[in-house]
Amino acid sequence: MKPKMRLGIIGGGLMGREAASAFGRWFVLENMPVQAELVAVCDLQEKLLDWFQQVPTVKLLTKDYKALLASPDVDVVYVAVPHDLHEAIYLDVLNAGKDLLAEKPFGIDLRAARSIRDAAAKSGRFVRCSSEFPFLPGVQRVLQAVRSGKFGKLLEIRSGFHHSSDLDPTKPINWKRQTKHCGDVGVMGDLGMHTVHVPFRLGWKPLRVYAQLQKIYTQRPDGKGGMAACDTWDNAMLHTEVRVDGAEVPMRLEQKRLAPGEMNTWYIEVLGTDGGVKFSTKEPKTLWTFERAKEQYWQRTDLGHQMAFPTITGGIFEAGFPDCFLQMWAAYAAERAGVLGDRFGCVTPDEAVASHELFAAALESHVKKTVVPLA
Ligand SMILES: NC(=O)c1ccc[n+]([C@@H]2O[C@H](COP(=O)([O-])OP(=O)(O)OC[C@H]3O[C@@H](n4cnc5c(N)ncnc54)[C@H](O)[C@@H]3O)[C@@H](O)[C@H]2O)c1
Questions:
Q1: Do domains 4-129 and 134-329+342-373 have the same CATH topology?
Q2: Could you tell me which CATH number the domain at 4-129 has?
Q3: Does domain 134-329+342-373 have CATH number 3.90.550.10?
């Protein structure tokens, strides 16, 4: 029998249920050193607790997260709640002696992120933050291509995450569109961790930032016949520079809730004088690679299901969101068990804090209409 990683979920909404789906099909992973088992769930909503009744391994369903944390059956806690609750709940998880996979943005602001990071270091618990797109086969190939060092002199880096459902002004308000719950960083807190994970892990940390932030709709239906203030940033374009091989290279990070036509598009592009690479979830099977030979050409490669953590799924099949989310959990479990090896790992607490340092500088840049240096 493999050792078990017994999980508790706090926040059984969109992401809490996605996590349950990942644990429920853990058996598709081959050669995993640990077996994941969901044993406890906490949410405030009865209907969500009812939904989790269908998971046979769940022994505890509660509306009190402290009851979940008191359970000796829980080893690791996944917390997926609104951002204003991150700090208090994450600290309680650590004080209860549990390991943590924290949802982004790892606290509502920079102060909260630093307090969580410091508490995590002091506690000695294994703590990582969520960001799943790098575990798609196309992104793993982007990482390999960049690390091959065949791009010559880097010209530019673009990393982004675009949504469009907020273009509909009749879409009702929710907590992600309210600063008191989502944070002053708005869309950066919502989508920003996804755009920085790969660049940060490649060592591309912004030296300075010039930010363009936009609020387009300032009110939304409150779902009760009235209107409510919608006071978060909708779109954030962060123009930064990073140092690569002694040279400064422009890197643009785009987070948008108002991007016409984009359902949930995550993308990255890295261009150099000799080579380049592009991947977008809009074309999930396609890797574009550039080579400057006698002629210049972009080559299209059809990708299959080649995952960092092999599964029983046939290599010719396509990968999607539930697959990369499962792979992220496999990376968390493997790193926690000390067997990640040279595979890509989840966002570290230091990387999460660095993302908040960038977003705080972006807010300052936008207010002062100036470039803000990062230490
Ligand atoms: N990794 C990703 O791709 C991704 C995608 C969406 C959201 N997120 C993140 O996940 C987190 C949750 O987002 P979501 O979309 O799942 O939100 P959601 O609104 O769908 O779910 C949040 C849940 O938390 C519950 N909750 C609130 N207060 C609670 C408390 N005190 N105790 C227990 N449960 C409580 C709510 O009842 C709700 O069911 C956020 O940090 C968000 O940024 C990550």
A1: no
A2: 3.40.50.720
A3: no
User: What spacing in Å lies between the alpha carbon of 89 and ligand 1's midpoint?
Assistant: 12
Cα(237) to centroid of ligand 1, in Å?
25
Q: Which residues line ligand 1 (CB under 6 A)?
A: 10-15, 42-45, 48, 65, 80-83, 85, 103-104, 130, 132, 190
Closest alpha carbon to 12 in 20, 4, 22: 20
Model pLDDT for residues 107-119, shown as the tens digit of each residue = 999 999 999 999 9
Domain residue ranges of the chain, discontinuous segments joined by +:
4-129, 134-329+342-373
Paired sense of beta strands 286-292 and 275-280, if any: antiparallel
pTM exceeds cut of 0.85:
yes
Return d(Cα 49, Cα 68) in angstroms, integer. Answer: 13
Note the pLDDT tens digit of each residue in 162-188. Answer: 999 999 999 999 999 999 999 999 999
